[in-house]
Design goal:
Layout (H helix, E strand, L loop, with lengths): L17 H25 L6 E5 L5 H10 L4 E6 L2 H14 L4 E5 L11 E7 L8 H10 L1 E12 L12 H16 L6 H11 L6 E9 L6 H18 L10 H15 L3 E12 L7
Parallel strand pairs: 1-2, 1-4, 2-3, 4-5
Antiparallel strand pairs: 5-7, 6-7
Helix pairs in contact: 1-2, 1-7, 5-7, 7-8
C-alpha cells in the first residue's frame, strides 16, 4: 500500500459550516444527473459494494445506493460529523438502508472489506497528493474492481466575454485561490495522468462543460454561494481586496449581467475518469 496522503480536509479551502453544506446541496441538485450517468457508465450496478470517498452530505452515496439496490451496499466516508448526520438522515428518509456513513480521515481509514468500486466527487482537487489517494483507493478494491472519480478543472472555464466582467472576476478568483493553496486546479484534465501514475490501466475519460442561462438559472446562486464560502480566504490571501464584491448583491448582479449580455453562464468543466483494476492486482 502506498503511503497515506494527507487527509483532504487539511487542504480544504472551503468550510465545514451550515452555509457550505447548503451550497453543496444546491450544487448537487445541478450536477447529480451528470454523476448518475457517469456512475452507470463506469459500471456501478445492482448488488455491488461501493465506497464513497469524502461523501459530505451524501449526494454521491445516495446516487450509488439507488444504483446498487437492496442487495448491494454503499459506505460513505467523511471527516465532518455534521455533514454525516445530514447524510444519514437523508438515507433514512429515502429508505436506503443499504447506505451507511463512517466518520474518518481518508488518510487513516481502514475498510473492513474489499469493495467492488471506490468512487469520489470533488475530492482529489482538495488533495495535495492526488496520486497517493488514487493508489489508496485502488488498494480498497478487489481485482477487477472499479475506480471512478469526477473533478472540476479550474484552469479554464470557457471563453471570457468582455460584457461579463463579474463572472470573469469570480472565475479568476476561484482559480487563483486554489493555486495559492497549492491545490491541483487542473484536476479534471489530469485524472488520466493520475490514474496512470497510480499504476492503473488507461481510463475512460470525459470533460463536460456545465452551461445554463436565462432569468431562472440556479447557476447564479450556485456561484454566489461558492464565493460566499471562499471569500474570507480570498481576502486573507490577497486574491480579492476587501469590498471588491458585494456578496449579498452578487447573485442578482450575475443574473443581470448574463441576461443583459445574452451570454451563456458557464461553470468550469467537470472531468471524469473510470477504470477497472487488473484482475488479481492489489497494491
Amino acid at each position: 500500500m502506498a503511503d497515506c496522503p494527507a487527509g483532504p480536509s487539511r487542504a480544504y479551502v472551503l468550510t465545514h459550516t451550515d452555509t457550505e453544506r447548503r451550497r453543496l446541496a444546491l450544487q448537487a441538485s445541478i450536477i447529480n444527473p451528470f454523476t448518475n450517468r457517469f456512475l452507470r457508465d463506469a459500471g456501478v450496478a445492482g448488488g455491488m459494494h461501493v465506497l464513497d470517498f469524502a461523501c459530505g452530505v451524501g449526494d454521491v452515496s445516495l446516487t450509488a445506493g439507488r444504483l446498487v439496490g437492496g442487495h448491494g451496499s454503499v459506505t460513505g466516508v467523511d471527516i465532518d460529523p455534521e455533514a454525516l448526520t445530514i447524510a444519514a438522515a437523508r438515507a433514512k428518509e429515502e429508505g436506503l438502508d443499504q447506505v451507511r456513513f463512517v466518520q474518518a480521515d481518508l488518510g487513516t481509514f481502514q475498510p473492513e472489506i474489499q469493495y467492488d468500486a471506490v468512487i469520489g466527487r470533488h475530492i482529489l482537487i482538495h488533495t495535495p497528493d492526488p496520486v497517493a489517494l488514487v493508489r489508496r483507493a485502488r488498494s480498497f478494491v478487489h481485482g477487477g474492481g472499479i475506480l471512478a472519480f469526477q473533478e472540476y478543472d479550474l484552469s479554464f472555464s470557457g471563453p471570457k466575454f468582455d460584457d461579463m466582467p463579474l463572472w470573469t472576476m469570480c472565475s479568476h478568483a476561484i482559480t487563483a485561490l486554489f493555486e495559492r493553496a497549492g491545490l491541483p486546479v487542473r484536476a479534471g484534465a489530469l485524472l488520466y495522468t493520475w490514474f496512470l501514475e497510480a499504476g492503473l490501466p488507461i481510463p475512460e475519460c470525459r470533460l463536460e462543460y456545465l452551461i445554463d442561462g436565462g432569468e431562472r438559472s440556479l447557476y447564479y446562486e450556485w456561484l454566489t454561494e461558492t464565493m460566499r464560502s471562499l471569500l474570507p480566504k480570498m481576502e486573507a490571501l490577497g486574491v480579492l481586496e476587501k469590498g471588491a464584491l458585494d456578496i449579498d448583491q452578487l447573485q442578482e448582479q450575475l443574473r443581470q449581467e448574463a441576461v443583459r449580455s445574452k451570454r451563456p453562464f458557464m461553470v468550469g468543466p467537470m472531468g471524469a475518469a473510470f477504470v477497472r483494476t487488473p484482475l488479481g492486482s492489489r497494491d
